[in-house]
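Possible regression after last week's pipeline update?

I re-ran a chain I had predicted before the update to compare outputs. Posting the input and the new output here so someone can diff against the archived version. Not blocking, just want to make sure nothing changed silently.
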Amino acid sequence: MKVTDSWHSERLGREVTVARWGTTGVPFLIYPTAGGDAEEIERFLVIDTLAEYLEAGLIKVYSCDSIAGRAMLTGEGTPQHRMYLIDQFLEFVGRELVPAIRTDCASEDIEIMVGGASIGAFNALATICRFPGDFSHALCMSGTFDLERFLKAPPTHHFHVSSPIHHIPDLEGERLDRLRERFVLFASGEGEAEDIGESWRAAGIMGGRGIPNRVDSWGPDWKHDWPLWRNMLHKYTPELAGAVGAGD
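New output (post-update):
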């Protein structure tokens, strides 16, 4: 059921591993959390949670190493280097991983869902904002969308163009037009270590530019941890995959 591959990315200057589960269905790229690898979602039972949808052929799940998130977690290089990696990681996804997913799906134009939790939610939002021609729906769980406080340095151009809450307010043209045909679902608990305010802020910025989105609160009983994200993925995957299949 699981297939893994890896290749050296010139953009990132290192080997990147990609994993895939399932054989047919809507491709769903799920990012790991900050320092996670391509198989993190399997170890934390996300694949088990989605098993019924994988077996039914509703989705094919993909994941990759969290290169930029790991660099932030370990303090790799200078803050400017880490901002550069955020930008290059998105380029890796759009220029290397998307073509690989489409080859695997035997379709040159299949649309992809994207999701993630915490820093993975940032990556999911940043991905659909940069590549709305490739990604149709984003599920951003317990999102951390303002990374400036982690980088502790003046934002560079690479950071600005990668951070949706910073560049979407000024975005114009064809990419904005395409984003207005896409959908972002922000979901967050309000328990320990959760900050739903991050989701409301990002949603307000998206909505202010006419980008369809929704914020769902799971309330104070849910904390920032895998049980919440597994339940979210189980709940929202049929909704989002069904919308992709229907062309909504």
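Follow-up from reviewer: compared with the archived run. The beta strands are 2-9, 14-21, 26-30, 59-64, 112-117, 135-141, 183-188, 213-217. Marking as no regression found.
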